[in-house]
Structures are given as structure tokens and as C-alpha cells.
Amino acid sequence: MASNNRTERTPLLNGDAPTGDRSEARESFGTRMKRFLQRNGVYLIIILLLILVLVPLLVQTIRGSGKKHKHHDSHGEKPSDPHSNSTELCTSAACVLASANILRSLSPSYEMLDPCDDFRAYVCAGFDAAHEIREDQAGVGNLQIMNENNQLILKHILESPAPKDTSLFWTAANPDQEIFDKLQDGYNACMNESLLASIGSKPLLDLLLQLDKIYPTEKSKKNKDDNSLTKAIEFLMSIGVGGPVSIDVGADDKDPDTNVISVGAPYSFGLPSKQYYERAEVVDSYKETIGSVLEALLKEAKPDALLFMSDNQDMIVLSKDLVDSLVALEKSMANVAPDPEDAADVTKYYNPRTLKETEAYNSEISVKEILDTFASGYTPSKIIVGSPDYLKALEKILKSSSRKTIKTYLVWKVVQSWAGAVEDPAVQPLLRFRNKLRGQAPDVKQERWRTCVSSVGNDLEWIMSRFFVERAFSKEAKDLGDQIILDIKDEFSIKLNESEWMTESVRQLAIEKVHLIRQKIGYPTQSPDITNAGELQEYYSNVSISATTFFENKLSVVRQDVRESWAQVGKPVDKDEWGMSAQTVNAYYNPPGNEIVFPAGIMQAPVFYDPSIPKYLSYGAFGAVAGHELSHAFDSSGRNYDQNGNYTDWWDNSTIQAFKTKTDCFVEQYHNYTVPTKNGPLPINGKLTLGENIADAGGLTAAYQSWKRRDDEKADLMLPGLDHFTKEQIFFLAYGQTWCGKMREEQVVQRIYTDPHSPDIFRIKGTTANSREFREAFSCPVKEPTCELW
Fold this sequence. Notes:
Strand order of the largest sheet: 2-3-5-4
Keywords: Hydrolase, Membrane, Metal-binding, Metalloprotease, Protease, Transmembrane, Transmembrane helix, Zinc
Oligomer: single chain
Cofactor: Zn(2+)
């Protein structure tokens, strides 16, 4: 749920405890207990569920004689609204399961704790105790668990015969059969590890040999243009590999109905962020990795080609000086690239230039030549240059670097991008290094089926979406999503009307913007329509998939994606396209499109979202996410776009100054939060995370008020086993548990440097500190929020 200059793409997702020695007698008891549970586990579960439902009913009967049940908060005080809770319980299976999930996540001693002191510990200590980070994970959290549940659904689909005719849109005939076969072939190609091992690194080496012909180490004296850096960058672009510049096609921020070309710095240069190049132990390990991988690939490539040789031609040894110069090149580029908060700031990255002006920034890379290759015959009226300073500095860096160093850099970019698609010992050092950066054991790998579900889900995302929606979504779920978002839109209009810091003219335009926000729920029905098998068949007709060519399958997908992207140059923006597949556990707001998108993957039971459970759960979890995305329309980035998605100055100076005063509070609040690391406390980047922190606060408030209005119309039932809480408090439990999770230190550090979201712990602590409604629900001594915008 990140926010960048176009659409949100940042995923929300991001061991074993020591047991000690046991005597034979204790092991024998454990064995007997295990057998007992295996035989009687189902009966125990039924008994526990009955107890969970019946005990509260019995207690009410004893207490009540029809009187209302008194609810008390954690301070032992009566809630502010004694009539807010019904005595009637929801005893359906879905409600029992939802209640059990909440209780399991809470701190076991929650009745003794004050939620106003540390709501994260209050709501997640039980989750922490029940979950360990697996060896193949960098972290574990509720949203990641939801994603893994979705993966399991997809695994069952992919490993089963084609479905029979269904009530939604599947028919057991062509073209459905054809697209299902294509999906299964892609999955089976990935799963055939023995075949991949026998093929080894050959497909990767083929790419490197092509690069070697395009950009040889020794420049040709006959025709300098044939082996220019520009041609090498074009080759990298054609196979989906990032180079020293990023050249993309997307909606023009100041003309959102038109596609425009943008040129800027890449997202990363080799290591996750520029800070890593200052960490000697990381850089040393990185250099060792580069040397090991490239030397091994060179040995496998001989005698076909010798891309790099030491001065001693009898030995295939990569020069240490060459590796040092490669990493120095990466570091130089990273140091002159914009910081992440500036790269995502439309007021800084939107620099329209003519083609001639763009060419003048860097004589080493010709944007004109690249356009001639990918968009032949098209002459842009303007190009958006993300950072003119970066392009100018890059020219000096490239001119001062040897051709051999640049060549090594380009080869390494290809290896980094495609090593995961081959099974070969030569690339294992890179996979081990990546594990190290995430804090995982060097040789750990996730289950192959998870890798392959993700792979084919990315490659054939809309076919996969069709079958996921068929299995895991419903009309009722879609209708609830539409209702929640419409409710939050209404609530935001009310909030805008009450925002005295806005001038009247700005306020009215903002309300109009809310009404014009497009909402996409569940799955696309255009561009492509996943309910139409024939349309999906045509959509993927140029993608070749075979059950025996995993690497080539992925290459076919990437090349088609590149062709489709560049085919949009100079054409109107297709506003029916989605930026995320239906199975994705995520959501986003797209500023130029003024749209919010919620895939079916994030609208899943049992706790996060379910039409059959009390609405305070769905509004507290999914509703807060929906409000979060809508709030992006008015965060530090989204507020620059008017009601039509145009980047323009539609706020007057007094409103801008009032906004800045309020948002400076958020910057300071989050900058004062730190995470402990082995090198000392590391502060959150309050500027990088500003937009997301604003959206968290605004989304939670809007979701709460929306639910309250619904509850006033028709009161929700209470959940069994939660008589300690009011419905208002359970709303906030649902919100907090959305972000329960834990992460390895190395992954937390990486996210602080690169992720515009705050770590999950502060998405609970920081957001509830900014919620007046939370403080009132739990009768906190201080009712004023730390920071407040809406």
C-alpha cells in the first residue's frame, strides 16, 4: 500500500524456539498426548467451540433476567455509550471463529493491561507467542498469513484437474480449457526442478553472450555506434532488466488521460539502498558474492566466450580490482540519485523537458535512440525527467569509468535479474547473499510450490485471477466492499466539510474529488475482462508457455510486457486497467487516475473481511485499509492532484500552510519512533513515511465513523467470549490485529531505508495515538490525539 508517483505497488507483506533436553519419560508422555490429540482433536475443537458460545449465554442468563449486559473497558469503567452494545450474540460458525482468532491474538493477560499504554502489546502479544518466523521467511504477519492462504488455494487449483462447469463463469470447454492448460504448463515448468538442474545456467549464459556481442569489452574501431552503451541498455530493457537509467511509459501527471515517457534514476543499483554502501561488512560480502558468481559463470561459458579474464589467460579468475570498480560505480550512482522521499514527490520529479533538452543532460546514453527502437516513428512533445541532476551527474560518472567496469556492471544487472530463474550452483552465492540481507540462514529456500505459485501468478496474472475469483470470492463479498467504500466516501465528505483549516473554495473542490474517485473492487471486467475466457485467450496469445521451458516462458512474458508498455506511447490512458492481480493481498490509490483499487485477495475471511460477521470487524480491518487508500487522495502527495487527477496548484496558500503545520506534527512524531538494532536505535524516516502515516490516521477515523453510522441504523450483534469489550473496542482490536506481525532485524532495517510505510508496530502504536475515537473507546486519560489532520 505504498504511494509513489503513479500507483501503489509496495506489498504489505513482508524459526523454531529452542526446546532443550527431554527425558525419555517426558518424550513418552508427549508421544501419548500426540496420539490422543490425533484421535480426538476434532471432538476437542467442537467442545471448545461449544464452550466458547454457551458459557457467555449462561453467564448472561444468570446475570440478567433480560437486563442489558454491562460492558466494562480495561480500566474497569463503563464505556462512554452504555447502550452501544446488544445483549444478543452471534453464534454462527463464522462468528465463533472470528472471536477465537481475536482472543488468540490478544495478550493472555489483557485484562490486567492498559491498552492506552501499549496497544500493540495488548492486541498482538498472543499472536507473537503463537507464531514463529519460519526459516524461509523474513517476517510473519496477519496479512502475510492471508497471502499464504491464498497461495494454498492457488496450489490446489494448479495441481487439480480442470474444474467442472460452475455457477460463476467457468465452463469446462475451450477457451477455458486452453487457458487453464497454459496456466498449469507454466506451473509445471517451474516445479520440474530436476529438468531445471540438468539445464543449469545455459539460458542465463545465452543472455550474457547476446550482451557480449552488443557491448564487447573492447570497443570496435570500425563502427562505434554498433556497440554503444545505449544499445546495451536497449537490450537490458528488452529483457526487463534495469540499468543506470529508468525509462518508462505511464500517465502524464498534468494530463492524466495521456501516456508520457519518463526518464530518471532506477529504483536501486545493486544493494537495497545507498546506506548499504556505507556498511563495510555488507559491501565486503557483496563483492565476494559478485566475484564467486561471475567466476563460476565464466567457467561454464568457456570455451564459447570469455567475457572477463584476468591478465593471466590461463586462469579464469575475475580481477578483484574489477569487482571493486563495479561496486564503486554502483555506489557513485546511488549517491547522486534522489532520496526515496524525493523520488516519490511529484513536486520534485515532475520536470517536463523536450527530447533535445533531455538528450543534453547525458551524452553517454541517447534517449532518442532508445525511442527509435521501442517507439519507432513517435516524437514526444515532452519527456518527464525525474531528476535532471542525476542524469548530469551520471554522465560524469560513466565518462570516468572504464568500459570494462561498465560492461561488468551490465552483466551483473542481468545476473541479478535472472539468477532466480535457473537452477545452478554458479548462482547460489547470490541467493545466499540475498538471504543474508534478510537475516535468514544462507541456504534456506522456501517450498518450491510457493515459489512457483508466485511465479506463474506474476507471469499469467489475469488467468490466475480468473480461477482465484472463481474459488475464493463472491457477489456478497464484492457488495460489502462497495458498501464500505461508499460509506467512507460519505464520511470523508463530512470531514472535509468540517475542516476549518481549508478555505471554502478548496473544501468544495476536495469534496468533488471524493465523489469522483473511481472504485475498483475484486477483479477487472475490462482490459482484460477475467470473466471472459476468450478475451484472456487473446490477451495471452503472444505469450509462449511450455511445460519444459521455464526460463523461456518467463522471457516470453517479459518481452510481451515490454512490447505492450511501449505500444501505449502517445495513446490515451486505459483507465480500465488494473495494477494488481485479483489474488494480491494489497490495495492502492492511483493519483492521476483518481481511483482506489481493492483486489479480491485482500477481501478474505475469517477476521479481516467477511459479509457474515458483525460489521465492526470488517470496517475495523478492511474499512481502515479502504479509508487509508482514500486518504491518499489528500496526503502529502495526493493533495497535489485535483478532482480530475491533474497535478496542479488547486490549493491556496493559506490552506497549504495550514496543511504543512499539521503534517509537520506527523513527521516529528514518527521520527521520534525508533527500532532497536545491533548498531543502536534506528529512527523512522518521518518524511519518507509521511503520506502513509497520514493515510493510516485518516483511514482509521473515517472507517470508525462509517461503521458507527451503520450501527446506528442496525446494531451489530456481539461476538461470543468477548464480553470484556464494547463493540467500539472490538473495532479497534480488529484494526490492530491487521498489523500484528514480527520481522527479522535485517528486514526491518531494509524497510526503514526503502519503504514509505512505517514498520507494522508503529502502524498500530502511531495510528491509535492519533485516534481520538480510540482514546475515547478505551477511556484513555488523554483524549487529544498526538497529531490530527481530518
